[in-house]
Amino acid sequence: MTLPLQLDDVLVDRNKSALFLYYLGRSAQKLKEKEIAKKKLEITLKQLRKLSTKEISKHLDILEKHLKETLQKERRLLTTQEKEEMFLDSLAKKIDLLQHKLTRYQKTQNLRKKRIKELEEKMKLTLASKKEKITILKEDLKRLKTLYNSVKNKKNFDKRRLKKIADRILKIKEKIDALK
User: In the chain, fewer beta carbons within 10 Å around the N or the C end?
Assistant: First the structure.
């Protein structure tokens, strides 16, 4: 994988720029050929002005040949230019589409990251609150056990009250197990 070439603030893709330079060179070559054909035509016209009437018909044939060549090259240049413009238009549309998709992808990625952070924060809060609930329940359990032992150690203890405390201890143990 080739890294992009950095020119000032612009990153240039080497693969795409090679294709662009190739087409640029082709069009420059065609323009050069067009200029050469025009110069040939000018030279032939200058020679015609200098010639005598006997040789004019011979040179008119050469001139007609040069004119046909120039027109053919001009037509080829125009068709090639039209094809390249269509190709460049399609590339521009593809680039716009890809930029749109990339923008949409980046937005969804950012939204996902934001949602993940929110979920992580929520999980941290629930875990922290769960730990707090467990510690509170353990403290309640400790107090109830102390109360249970103190009621049980009395001479005249109420069995119904002792039963209520035991039931409450069991419920707290179940809650602690459920939270874990």
Answer: N
